Amino acid sequence: MENSTFFQLPNATLPTWTDNSIEYKFVSIILVILICGIGIVGNVMVILVVLTTKHMRTPTNCYLVSLAVADLMVLTAAGLPNITESLFGQWVYGYAGCLSITYFQYLGINASSCSITAFTIERYIAICHPIKAQFLCTLSRAKKIIVVVWVLTSLYCVMWFYLSDMEDLAYDNVILEKCAYKVSRNLYLPIYFTDFAVFYVVPLLLATVLYGLIARILFLNPLPSDPKESRRNWKKDSSLGNKSINSRSSSSCTTIASRRQVTKMLAVVVILFALLWMPYRTLVVVNSFLKDAYLDTWFLLFCRLCVYMNSAINPIIYNAMSQKFRAAFHKLCHCGAQRSEKPPTYSVALTYSVIKETSNGESPDHYSTELDNIREAAEVLLPGRKMLSFKEPSLACKNTLSTA
């Protein structure tokens, strides 16, 4: 990806080839293995916890799964081949590997950018337009959007099958095979700058505007009222009086805090995307206008590592800033060791109206577990009533429930 992007001319006179130093090989291999290893494990865990945990299947988390798949693609297609390049100094995967790896590199990069844009728009609608969010920000619609994103980016990246090719670089002392592009520098520049604008500049500008509007709602103004929630609160107030008002006030504060927490986490993901991609993007733009491109080996390694870190750091952000993800990661890691334990028993009064109001799995702001919602509602609606005991087998791996 880097060799061809930096426009090395195929017919240029090349000096004597010298292998990379031992220090460079050691540092590059260790850092790439470390970053890519952490990133692969972390993104796989994100996918597993969302797919296997029912209360984690929200529209926002669906977009995070799409982002995790794209990051896995970048780490495996762009990160791991650089280990062999550092060791051997040339391309070792042949013609088919050149075409497929280049394709998956750009597919992962473009799909990650589109996934970030998708969850940014979803957060904006959910927070700034809660009425529209009732039918726009649903789980089924999020899945359809993700499918469309991957289909369009896959079709867009097909051109790299026709642009990629093997190239022999003739040095004074050796001939090395490289994975490069067929087109000349002048023809490639418009393609690259289109990628740069569509998948980097536009998403960041859009994210800046939308997160500014979200911040104004969450941190400066009270949240817009939700008509559906208002009707529920009115019914509770009329039947239960002050106790319901206090409970509703506490629930509203928890919802606002949860929305702020999730928004901060996603904003950090976008900011790191902008910062960690900036060295590579800037270097390519600068080299596009230089007669002799700047190709310092150590600086190129720094640019690559920043790209890999962008794909590896997101699960760490989720774990650090989201209590729900942190609890889900902990549960996933300890599930095997605690599988034989007896499932915990919960006492909850179950009524049809309670279940109906608390089991909407497609709500865009479904930040608390279903059992927590049922238990809280039961305590308010049926104080003093004898509770029915039931077991939840799906929670056998953890003895306590954590809210968002």
Write a structural description:
The chain has helices at about 1-5, 20-50, 60-80, 80-90, 95-130, 130-135, 140-155, 160-165, 185-220, 225-240, 240-290, 295-310, 315-320, 325-335, 350-360, 370-380; strands at about 165-170, 175-180, 345-350, 390. Helix 3 (about 60-80) packs antiparallel against helix 12. The protein has a two-stranded antiparallel ribbon. Strands 3-4 form a two-stranded antiparallel ribbon. It is globular. With about 400 residues, it is mainly α. A hairpin with a 4-residue loop joins strand 1 and strand 2. The model is unreliable at about 1-10, about 225-230, about 340-380 and about 385-404 (pLDDT under 50). It has 16 helices and four strands. It is a multi-pass membrane protein. This is Thyrotropin-releasing hormone receptor.
Strand order of the largest sheet: 1-2
Look at the helices and sheets and give the structural class: mainly alpha
Strand content: 5-15%
* Secondary-structure element series: HHHHHHHHEEHHHHHHEHHE
Sheet with the most strands, sense and barrel status: 2 strands, antiparallel
Query: Which architecture name of the domain at 22-223 and 256-333 does CATH use?
Result: Up-down Bundle
Distance between the termini: 40 Å
CATH class of the domain at 22-223 and 256-333: Mainly Alpha
Q: What is the assigned CATH homologous superfamily of the domain at 22-223 and 256-333?
A: Rhodopsin 7-helix transmembrane proteins
User: Helical amount among residues, as a percent range?
Assistant: 55-70%
Q: What is the mean predicted local confidence, pLDDT? A: 77
Radius of gyration: 26 Å
Tell me the number of helical segments per DSSP (H or I, 4 or more residues long).
16
- List segments where confidence is low: pLDDT < 50 over at least 5 consecutive residues: 1-11, 223-230, 339-378, 386-404
